[in-house]
Amino acid sequence: MIDPQHPSSPRTGSERRRSGAARFSVSDRLRRTGDAVQGLLVELRGPPRPAPAAPQPPPRGAGLLRVASYNIHKCVGIDRRFEPARTAAVIAELGADLVAVQEADRRFGRRTGLLDLVALERETGLAPLPVSDLADGHGWHGNALLVRPGTPARIRRLTLPGAEPRGALVADLDLPSGRLRVVAAHLGLLRRSRAQQAAAILRALAETPEGEEPLPTLLLGDLNEWRPGHRSSLRAFEPFFGPVTQGPPSFPTRLPVLALDRILGWPRGLVSHVAAHDSALARIASDHLPLTATVRLGAVAEQEEAAA
């Protein structure tokens, strides 16, 4: 029934053609958008892209260390398989003298360790420093620090502020090439929490005993910050470590676009050659790629001699 107050008139042929053309244009645009999204999903879910040629590590020498940071995702790969031996194999690929590991323990309940320590020491020559309250734990809030067995170390465990339980390790190491302070951390998911945690770490670094010179210092870990520039919570570290520039992308492993993992050093010149370790095995063993870097303790000695 036609409302006499709102009479309708049949559409003309040209109106029907314009309406049909509009529907076709929208439909075509949606189809093309859907095809693009489907192509991206195929790329993300499909088999890993061919591995590039492995980068050559920088030359070794007196005072040079190779260090690494690796979020091992509790030894669960992107194939959802729990394989601690595979994690140990990736760490072996790094050829590092020292490795900060995140998510080395169970997250909830009894926080037992997840690493295969036998395979790890056999493949890498490294073992975790004793930082857990549990006999079968490997880390502190999931943070483990792998070093050569027998390395003298003075260890502090930090409980970090924030909306979720987080912690960090501060280890003063006596290495053949010199003394080194290492901070291993896994910061929170919230920007405000990360800023608070950065401030807590800097306060701990400022607690140098009277009469003791500050040690060359590394900060390694999954810092969970993807924002560059002034929006980055990592700017809180700049009073100690200097300008924090964009690092190499390490997450997610199939298509790394976010620089969540970092290796920072003080004084300037301590750290160089920071790179993501992008191997076929690393792409599947965790959702993060490991980071590697060269630490030149010899550079610190040279600076001290120049200043003397």
By CATH reckoning, the class would read: Alpha Beta
Quaternary assembly: single chain
Total DSSP helices: 7
- Helix content range: 25-40%
Structure description:
This protein is α+β, with helices and mostly antiparallel strands. The protein has a single domain (64-307), classed as Endonuclease/exonuclease/phosphatase (Deoxyribonuclease I, Chain A, 4-Layer Sandwich). It contains 7 helices and 11 strands. The chain has helices spanning 13-45, 84-94, 117-124, 191-206, 238-241, 280-285, 297-307, and strands spanning 64-71, 98-102, 127-128, 144-147, 153-160, 166-175, 178-186, 217-222, 261-266, 271-276, 291-296. The strands form 2 sheets. The protein has a 6-stranded mixed sheet with strand order 3-4-2-1-11-10. Strands 5-6-7-8-9 form a 5-stranded mixed sheet, covered by helices on one side. The radius of gyration is 26 Å and the shape is globular. The N and C termini lie far apart (101 Å).
Question: Which short descriptors sum up this protein?
Answer:
single chain; 308 residues; alpha+beta; Deoxyribonuclease I, Chain A; 6-stranded mixed sheet; 5-stranded mixed sheet; 23% strand; globular
Write the layout of secondary structure elements.
Layout: H1 13-45, E1 64-71, H2 84-94, E2 98-102, H3 117-124, E3 127-128, E4 144-147, E5 153-160, E6 166-175, E7 178-186, H4 191-206, E8 217-222, H5 238-241, E9 261-266, E10 271-276, H6 280-285, E11 291-296, H7 297-307
Parallel strand pairs: 1-2, 7-8
Antiparallel strand pairs: 1-11, 2-4, 3-4, 5-6, 6-7, 8-9, 10-11
Helix pairs in contact: 2-3
